[in-house]
Amino acid sequence: MPVGTQGSVKAIEQRELNEVGAQIILGNTYHLYLRPGTEIIQTAGGLHRFIGWNKPILTDSGGYQVFSLNELREIEEEGVTFKSHLDGSSHVFTPESVVQIQRQLGSDIMMVLDECTPYPSEPEYAKLSNAMTVRWAERCKNAFESGAELYGYSQSLFGIVQGSIFPEIRRQSAQALVKIGFDGYAIGGLAVGEPADVMYSMIEVCEPLLPADQPRYLMGVGTPVNLLEAVARGVDMFDCVLPTRNGRNANFFTRSGSINIRNAKYKTDFTPPDPECSCYTCGSFSRAYLRHLFQVKEILGLQLATIHNLSFYLWLMREARAAIKERRFGEWKMKMVSQLCAEDKVVEI
Amino acid sequence: MPVGTQGSVKAIEQRELNEVGAQIILGNTYHLYLRPGTEIIQTAGGLHRFIGWNKPILTDSGGYQVFSLNELREIEEEGVTFKSHLDGSSHVFTPESVVQIQRQLGSDIMMVLDECTPYPSEPEYAKLSNAMTVRWAERCKNAFESGAELYGYSQSLFGIVQGSIFPEIRRQSAQALVKIGFDGYAIGGLAVGEPADVMYSMIEVCEPLLPADQPRYLMGVGTPVNLLEAVARGVDMFDCVLPTRNGRNANFFTRSGSINIRNAKYKTDFTPPDPECSCYTCGSFSRAYLRHLFQVKEILGLQLATIHNLSFYLWLMREARAAIKERRFGEWKMKMVSQLCAEDKVVEI
Lengths: 349, 349
Hints:
The structure is a homodimer. Chain A is α/β, with parallel strands linked by helices. Chain A has 14 helices and twelve strands. A seven-stranded parallel β-sheet of chain A has the order 1-2-6-7-8-9-10. In chain A, strands 3-4-5 form a three-stranded antiparallel β-sheet. In chain A, strand 4 (80-83) and strand 5 (90-93) form a beta hairpin. In chain A, helix 2 (29-44) packs across helix 5 and helix 10 (242-248) runs antiparallel to helix 13. Chain A is globular, with a radius of gyration of 20 Å. The A-B interface holds A 6-15, 31, 35-36, 40, 43-44, 50-52, 267-268, 270, 280, 284-286, 288-289, 291-293, 295-296, 298-304 and B 6-15, 31, 35-36, 40, 43-44, 50-52, 267-268, 270, 280, 284-286, 288-289, 291-293, 295-296, 298-304.
């Protein structure tokens, strides 16, 4: 899912999101709640109509951003009180209020309010934090069931598995959420600084406990290799700012490793960023031109990098789906990861 | 002509320039000469191939930018010595060298090196300056005729009428240039601070002296009303950063005046920026959404404003051409100017 934090996937038009093959995008409740505000979006008839996007939207609960505020927030059983990073004004998110906000946004997939346990955490903290996350999940479910959609189409609610890097807490979390019952399950609290191997083993811990016929969503991940390793472990959905943010930093993902287009060696390289890619950028422009655009700080560079990187990520996921269908995923993945490994060395989230 | 200073019309893709109806774009020799440098563009096979634009390109001579450097340049009969605004390195533009650079760029229309006389200037200065501009024009013509195109298609060379706001010098300039003989004639040195009425009367002074069967090009102009007034006085071509630059400043040109989309009154205005406009922006997005994009500083706001404003300008020129063809220009212009007058009050170049 390309990330459209503030109601726009940065530097790309909605029609271009369709063109690159996006089936769903993500919006951030925290940001949209503050600006333009839930009321304006509701008056517009929901987020889809407000931003002109008629495919699915997933919204997070706002929890992740709120917990990132650190000094500006206070967690209690009832919910979390926080000060806006924009003007310092005080606000409260409760499990019930974030469900209500997401009703007003009209997202197709709503997320429960959770605490994204910081990394590293002591097991005792992770246990208490997750217990509250589970209680909040139950309150979200109740609020979800007692409310109704506002725009004539149904919405889904996903739970979020927490538990830091502790297998036993992860298991308790997954089991408790499945018992409450959600339309899909996210694995949260990963890609927050732990080694990739630890992330992969946490996915392995959760996976067998999550219903096979419901989507599993790994939040905030990741590099192309991260995605393939997670798919291999049973994950269906991802969101990450990496393709868009790195693109705006001149980093082009390609089938044979990632390249920083600012590199002097591309000065007179008139080949496309990724010769095998069929996107607008690769079909129309050379590395030399793209390098020039970044050197002289033209906005077009950001646009063309975003188009390419999202095309690449969505191509990679289409290929993965096709390989799974044709029962050749393992082989394909091994080949792909080795091609991509040059890339992941230079990528930072 | 949308302005593509550094080989990109800011915040819009080449395919979108086609979509909004651009028939020709402008590139700036000074900027392209410095970055990426003439050699790289020549290695690419010319500017069209380098930037991926297969319709005409007009390049200026670089003179305007060089003369704007003030402290960093020195004018002599031979040419102008200047220091790069980027790294202070020293360079020389002569009438011959700017023709050669534009040969390497491969622009369809090349401009002679001229001195854009500052406003205000004393008549004596304007006279001497214009005399040199005419001598430089002749040297450009000679260099043009003794050289050859590099990429298998012919190029045109336009002269530039100067003379500040002094009718007699303007007349001498136009007559001298026509005597040398160019493929088209620009009127330069206007829209540099003089009142609009003075600009209009300077066009009136030049117009009868410029061949009716060759294009007249008013450089660096202007607002929608400026364009219509100049068309009424016989001008065929324009370039201006106004639609793109003002767009990036949240200013939307519309058929009934210009609007600043940041205005609070658009908070819940779910109508398009210009309801009569058929561009992608107006067909897909509301004022409320565009306001939000500018409020939260999303790049998409710049993209959508640019698409709309260029669509508007190019629509206006198409309408003008149709009205001229159907011999109803005078009537149409009067109506249009009165519709647009609200707009021009708030527009600043």
